[in-house]
Amino acid sequence: MAENILAEAKTREVELADGKVYKLSPLNLNVMAKLEDSFECGLDKLMQEFEKKQASSFRKMLFILLQDNHPEITLEDVGKLVPMSKFAEISKIISEVMTETE
Question: What is the pTM of this model?
Fold first, then answer.
């Protein structure tokens, strides 16, 4: 059987402070381009940027990963929907998305 080259990578979900479950976009060429444009650096430098300004970089990265599936959400909404108690959990999910290879 032929492999479906259009198959989507695994979609991750995250529950935010409003109790809703949100779908994150898998890492694809469009998402990678948005990240590079937003952070004004290549993906190889993205983690260094993330370490410099952790909260703002985390919010921006999560916003970009949410945009395809939730176009109504704003950057400010993302900031309000992530309580500190969920920061580590969501950070782990973002890391999984960023390192997804299948």
Answer: 0.82
